[in-house]
Amino acid sequence: MVRDVIIVGAGVVGCAIARELSRWDLDILVVDQASDVAEGGCTKANTAIVHGGYDAKEGTLKAKYNVEGNGMFDQLCAELEVPFERNGSLVVAFEGDDLSQLEVLRKRGETNGVPGLKVLSEAELREKEPHVGSTARGALWVPTGAIVCPYELTIALAENAVENGAHFQLDTAVTGIRREGEVWLVETAAGETLEAKAVVNAAGYQSGKFNNMVTAEKLDILPRRGEYYMIDKSYAGVFHSAMFQLPSDKGKGILVARTVDGSILIGPTAEDVDDPTDTRTTAEGLDKALTFARKTWEDMPTRSFITTFAGVRPRPSTGDFKIGEPADAPFFFNAAGIESPGLTSAPAIGKDLAQRIAQRLNAGKKDNFNPNRKAIPKFRELSNEARAALIAQDPAFGRIVCRCETVTEGEIRAAIRRPLGARTLDGVKRRTRAGMGRCQSGFCSPRVVAILCEELGLDPTDITKFGGASKLLVGRIGEEGKA
């Protein structure tokens, strides 16, 4: 079977492309080596910021797609029922010499097309954010800055793509891509060969490898690890805006930023590593994140840290995104080397590439594309009247499973039954927040495992944390040969 398009990679960029392509009369397949969408170390582990676009170098693809993508989020998140907030960003200067750099960023942002930028005095900064550190001297105000949940957005994009006819094949590791005649052959670790008229390379840290298989326009991906702390959402009101420090050549610096769910992220660090799957947290990295973040938030409540994590950014050797069709690889489309601001750029990259691919394949637009996707009801956010109505419709919504985040059995079962429904503990977590609160799944995980078993017809020993060999249970007490 020859598909029209195979997309390699089910992160936020791959799923944004799939959703945009599903507007066209095309047979689309998305493949990923993970057991779920948004499982990669870049999409699920980033700062959850929709960047304004002041930082990207003028004239780059990063600058272009950042600003275009930023402007698409209001409508996109409304259509997909994904939480989104334009709370603005502040880039804080702490030394006298740094104040001049704010003007450099403002001018760059204006060249890139970012509206509303303003350099604030110390007094203006403290009026806006009274808890900022005592050595702060001013800031760049970026009103178009915003926050969104990256994995919830990715799941929503994927679900909407499926509802509009796209197909997903997970647990499918791609080992090779080659062209034979007029068809691209995508080879997998399972020995399967998938065929398509066009291939999209949205494979994150593997995107350089796949690019280099098919074109002389080489690209190396250089992994850069970023480590984070997360603070309990009881401190959600300390800062309203995302609080950046002046960026460097290694990234946008250590930030303090509230998420749409109320928890606070501290990070990321920027450490070049050899292994793109190396998502360890280290004492050195976390100490660095804490030391720099204390400039922004001096009385940071370290006793309220609830977890740490790390992501790896696929830093391109060219210093810029690699987007589009190489001259010597017809119908092979790159969305490669997508590091920050990749989340912000994803909607614009998806729209641009989908239009290019559809034009190359002479595809027509669908008359019945549905841009809207209904989210799972969030019991914790409903009024008492809405809760009562939901429980009357399905009593499972009246049984709390995750006490920290007030997640009900009804929400968990709905997450499993959705298009591309949850199959793992982390899959449930990303769709409902069960296990994301203060106890980090200490209380709710046994019940979540039981619900997964009931819904999927599995034994508890079959359930994994994130697919593959990540089993939670190894056997039953008393069974011979097992402990």
Please outline the helices and strands.
Blueprint (H helix, E strand, L loop, with lengths): L1 E7 L3 H10 L6 E4 L17 E2 L10 H10 L2 H8 L3 E2 L3 E5 L4 H15 L5 E4 H7 L9 E5 L3 E3 L1 H14 L3 E3 L4 E7 L2 E6 L4 E9 L5 H8 L6 E11 L10 E4 L9 E4 L5 E4 L3 E2 L10 H14 L8 E12 L5 E3 L7 E5 L5 H19 L23 H10 L6 E3 L4 E2 H9 L7 H8 L12 H12 L27
Parallel strand pairs: 1-2, 1-12, 2-9, 5-14, 12-20
Antiparallel strand pairs: 3-8, 4-8, 5-7, 6-7, 10-11, 11-12, 13-16, 13-17, 13-18, 15-16, 19-20, 21-22
Could you characterize what this model shows?
The protein is α+β, with helices and mostly antiparallel strands and 483 residues long. The chain has 13 helices and 22 strands. The strands form five sheets. Strands 1, 2, 9, 10, 11, 12, 19 and 20 form an eight-stranded mixed beta sheet that branches. A hairpin with a 5-residue loop joins strand 15 and strand 16. Helix 1 (12-21) runs parallel beside helix 6, helix 1 (12-21) packs parallel to helix 9 and helix 11 crosses helix 12. The termini are far apart. The mean pLDDT is 95.
